[in-house]
Design brief:
Chain lengths: 174, 410, 75
């Protein structure tokens, strides 16, 4: 069975997204201190069964505590077929830091730009096309709490692929 | 695929150039949430706010649990269910009767001590309302994002005992149930901190189920008992921090923006936690009563009580009957406190003895579920070390409580 | 004027000019790095932690960590 991992900073709505995708009941919190373990579930995409794993929130793949260590070790051990990197649209830069680390390690990535509604309220505009073009992986705007954008996210998980950071640097004009 | 690795600075330079091209920040107007956010981490305003939040938590817990337990469960169980089952269950006085119904003449469910009487009453009448109240408030605090702010405010105190402010999160979780709290110790950075945290939680923090029963039995003394246990927590923490080698890194946490909790999420999460708790607790409460009653019938508990009597009477100032409750405490602490309450109601314990024995039950061996969790998280060596800490604390703080009760003349 | 983050008062703003290499990697993921602007939102008494705002997000860090960060302050 193919495996999909959800990775991201703490407090980005990752657990809510997980519960939406898996259709499971919320068992874990999106606030720090309580999501310290990974949670597994199943989901169906276009008739195919996938395993979906919610990793503990982490700011970096260089672990600072045991919860971040769990995230890193799971990634190493299980070789996911796709990693959905969940980024808080109001703190894109921090999210990109972890995303780049994941890309450097060679994982196939899809980016979910979550809480895009809050970002809009805060007058933060993100050029999703441009971001997708530079990163070279799918970028989808989502609002996990309402479920908006989830269909598109699911439909593009298959497009997840490893990319080279050198190529990203070139596309970013550096 | 060629794989390039970036240094920290290279990574940030790349992020900067990406962000310049894709992110446009308009003028951000500060909202009420931002103002509250600032006020809740400044000591002058934050500390009074934190005290108000914790007091509100406590007041709601007491009021909610009291409303259901005293208002519905006590009359339903004691006035109707108990006399009915005492009459209807066959074979009065036989072993099965003792195990399932308990004392045929008991006037209340606390005193009867049968699976169907005390067991159902404590599990559903007392513990369930307490746990629902606890998790409801905890979930709201969690979903608003208040907990990291509380961590910032209490950091100074926790830093003194080799932990840091984030230790408040496992500690508060532990006041609901020690089992997830032991797992939550993972948010601490070093092995030393995680070991200290798990040990302190297992030894000193009573779970919500147990506090619920305490609230029912001796409401006016619960704050004092909790204060004493927290005193033990910090004193032992200070000692451990000096004895255990290892690093104690400082707090480094994200303080997320405040969010309004979504009621539907709060409801599902509270329900998930409560139902998880029921699945774990109810079989343990009911099974525990069966085991303890069997041990009574076989004479094991009386034998233990005789053997331990000198220590209990001299050192802790409690009669040897409390040994039965301590055996129960290995399986479920809420039911153990319930047993003590039954003994007090039957005139076997004075109020002072009840207070000391409740403290003993709290510090004493963690319940079976916590024990297994400690084993899983820390391995056999750490488990044994925790148990050594526990044994010393049990005698030191149990003896101290005896002294305090004697001096206060309760 | 350059000072340590630990010496800044609530309300003060500045730009990070140096982060000690011992903590650089552990704060990098949280968006704390050289060149970034920050504001001190709160400071706890008796050697307690500070709360800083970086790009609209708050982070709390202990005094010792704050001593390892040098900031060019605005006047």
């Amino acid at each position: 069975m193919k495996k999909i991992f959800l990775a991201g900073n703490p407090n980005v709505g990752k657990s809510v997204l997980f519960n939406r995708l898996s259709g499971a009941r919320a068992t874990v919190s999106n606030y720090p201190g309580t999501t310290v373990d990974f949670t597994k579930s199943r989901m169906r995409i276009a008739g195919k069964e996938y395993e979906i794993v919610d990793l503990p929130g982490a700011f970096s793949l260089e672990p600072k505590d045991k919860a971040e260590e769990v995230a890193r070790d799971m990634l190493k051990k299980e070789k996911p077929d796709a990693v959905v990197s969940v980024i808080d649209a109001t703190a894109v830069e921090r999210g990109l830091y972890l995303t780049l680390e994941l890309i450097e390690k060679g994982y196939p990535i899809v980016v979910a730009l979550n809480m895009s509604d809050v970002a809009r309220d805060r007058k933060i505009k993100i050029d999703v096309r441009k971001l997708e073009e530079i990163l070279g992986v799918p970028v989808v705007e989502t609002v996990a709490t309402t479920g908006s954008g989830l269909k598109e996210l699911v439909s593009r998980i298959e497009e997840a692929k490893p990319v080279d950071v050198g190529a990203i640097k070139q596309r970013a004009g550096r | 695929m060629p794989r390039t690795s970036l240094s920290v600075d290279e990574r940030w330079k790349l992020i900067d150039s990406i962000s310049k091209q894709v992110v446009l920040r308009g003028k951000y107007k500060h909202t009420l949430k931002d103002v509250i956010s600032d006020l809740s981490v400044r000591p002058m305003t934050g500390i009074p706010l934190a005290l108000a939040v914790l007091f509100g938590f406590w007041a709601f817990f007491g009021a909610f649990a009291g409303f259901f337990t005293d208002g519905f469960a006590v009359p339903a169980f004691d006035d109707h269910f108990l006399p009915a089952i005492q009459r209807a269950f066959p074979g009065e006085g036989g072993p099965l009767y003792w195990i399932f119904v308990g004392d045929p003449g008991a006037p209340s469910c606390f005193e009867a001590f049968g699976v169907l009487t005390s067991g159902l009453f404590v599990a559903f009448g007392v513990v369930l309302p307490a746990i629902v109240a606890f998790y409801l408030v905890l979930t709201i605090l969690e979903d608003t994002g208040y907990l990291p702010r509380l961590a910032v405010l209490v950091d100074t105190v926790f830093h003194k005992i080799g932990l840091h402010g984030f230790a408040i999160v496992p500690t508060i979780l532990s006041l609901g149930c020690n089992v997830p709290a032991v797992a939550a110790s993972r948010v601490l950075e070093t092995k030393k901190q995680r070991f200290m945290m798990m040990s302190l939680l297992a030894v000193f923090i009573p779970c919500g189920a147990q506090i619920g029963v305490m609230e029912e039995l001796l409401p006016e003394y619960v704050p004092a008992i909790l204060a004493f246990l927290f005193f033990g927590y910090f004193v032992t923490g200070a000692v451990l921090s000096r004895l255990i080698p290892g690093r104690s890194p400082e707090i480094l946490i994200d303080v997320p923006p405040y969010r309004s909790p979504i009621m539907k999420n709060v409801a599902t999460k509270t329900w998930a936690r409560v139902s998880g708790f029921i699945k774990m607790a109810v079989p343990a409460v009911l099974g525990g009563i069966v085991v303890v009653n069997l041990l009574y019938l076989l004479g094991v508990i009386d034998w233990l009580a005789d053997a331990l009597e000198p220590i209990f009477v001299v050192w802790f100032g409690v009669p040897a009957v409390t040994v039965g409750a301590l055996v129960m405490a290995f399986l479920r602490k809420d039911m153990a406190v319930g047993m003590l309450g039954g003994m007090a109601a039957a005139g076997l314990l004075t109020t002072g003895e009840l207070i000391t024995s409740v403290v003993l039950v709290s510090i004493y061996f963690p319940c079976l579920a916590t024990f297994i969790m400690l084993w899983k998280e820390g391995g056999v060596r750490d488990l044994l070390k925790s148990l050594a800490i526990l044994t010393v604390s049990f005698f030191v703080f149990g003896g101290l409580m005896h002294g305090i009760v004697a001096l206060a003349g309760v | 004027m350059k000072k340590k983050l630990s010496d800044m008062k609530p309300g003060e703003k500045g730009r990070i000019v140096e982060i000690d290499s011992s903590i650089r990697a552990s704060v990098a993921g949280m968006g704390i790095r050289t060149g970034e602007e920050l504001k001190v939102a709160a400071e706890q008494p008796i050697g307690g932690p500070v709360v800083i705002v970086v790009r609209g997000r708050e982070t709390s860090l202990g005094k010792g960590l704050a001593r390892s960060i040098i900031v060019e302050c605005e006047k």
